[in-house]
Amino acid sequence: MELKIQGLSKSYSSQVALQNMTLNLKPGIVAVLGLNGAGKTTLLRCLASLTKPDLGQLWFDGLPYSQNLALLRGQIGYLPQDLDLPASLTPRRLLEYLATLKNITEDSQVNQMLSTLGLEEIADWPFARLSSGQVRLAGIAQAFLGRPKLLLLDELTHGLDVEERERVFALARQPVPGRLILYSTHEPADAGRLADQVIVLRQGQVTFFGKVDDSRWQDQGEHILI
Fold first, then answer.
1. The pLDDT value given to residue 226
2. Residue 125 and residue 88: Cα distance in Å, rounded?
3. Which of 57, 110, 161, 183 is the Cys-Cys partner for 95 at CB 3.0 to 4.6 Å?
4. How many angstroms separate the CA atoms of 148 and 166, rounded?
5. What would the pLDDT profile of 48-80 be if each residue is shown by its tens digit?
6. Within 13 Å, how many C-alpha atoms sit on residue 29's CB side?
7. pLDDT in tens, 92-107
8. Are 95 and 114 in contact (CB under 8 A)?
9. With helix as H, strand as E and coil as C, how does the chain read?
10. What's the order of all strands across the beta sheet hosting 15-25?
11. CA distance 23 to 6
């Protein structure tokens, strides 16, 4: 399983979001690090096939996006930066509904996700009663549902407390052969905690791509929020 990005570019009016990005990513966990406006969300939306790039080509598992969108979407789990869920909906109903859409016949998957992320006791509470962190956990659960091979998680730990972060990190670390996880963050510490590799973005360009223990990105990471 390889994600290949070649010459990816995207602009909004006069604002350039991505500039001629080329990367080859293999299975593992990759943090996408950068300031707000660096292009993190646009990159993940392009990879999730929700935003059409102006230029460039994408392949996953040897298949071009342009000819295999329906098939590839079935292998993608996506967590948006902002979740807009119906106030009356519950975490369990959300997961059951999406499990149906994903043709998941194992009821145990829904229960397992709720348990893994500590949502069992509030699984039948409406989102209107839940904290922002609990809503975020439900969003993370739906992204992992169905064991997708490509996980795209925008601002993965946004709004989570320490205990909730640990649950999410433990879930992401569970070994799944051939899985690639990309998660965006503007916090260097989050990149260091979970990722195998790091992509640093500045103004839509890749300024570093390499292993998480490489001191070169750590030097950039120290100044990433300045």
1. 38
2. 8
3. 110
4. 21
5. 999 999 999 999 999 999 999 888 998 999 999
6. 20
7. 999 999 999 888 877 7
8. yes
9. CCEEEEEEEEEECCEEEEEEEEEEECCEEEEEECCCCCCHHHHHHHHCCCCCCCEEEEEECCEEHHHHHHHHHCCEEEECCCCCCCCCCCHHHHHHHHHHHCCCCCHHHHHHHHHHCCCHHHCCCCHHHCCHHHHHHHHHHHHHCCCCCEEEECCCCCCCCHHHHHHHHHHHHCCCCCCEEEEEECCHHHHHHHCCEEEEEECCEEEEEEECCCHHHHHHHHCCCC
10. 15-25, 3-12, 55-60, 63-64
11. 7
Is the backbone of residue 209 left (phi > 0), alpha (psi -120 to 50) or beta? beta
pTM equals: 0.93
Model pLDDT for residues 36-48, shown as the tens digit of each residue = 889 999 999 999 9
pLDDT at 219: 59
Contact 110, 76 (CB under 8 A): no
**Which residue's structure tokens are 């569970």?**
174
* For residue 225, pLDDT beyond 50: no
- pLDDT of residue 220 exceeding 80: no
Would you say 8 and 46 are in contact if contact means Cβ atoms under 8 Å apart? Answer: yes
Phi and psi torsions of 37, nearest 5°: 90, 5
Contact 56, 7 (CB under 8 A): yes
Determine the pLDDT at residue 47. 97
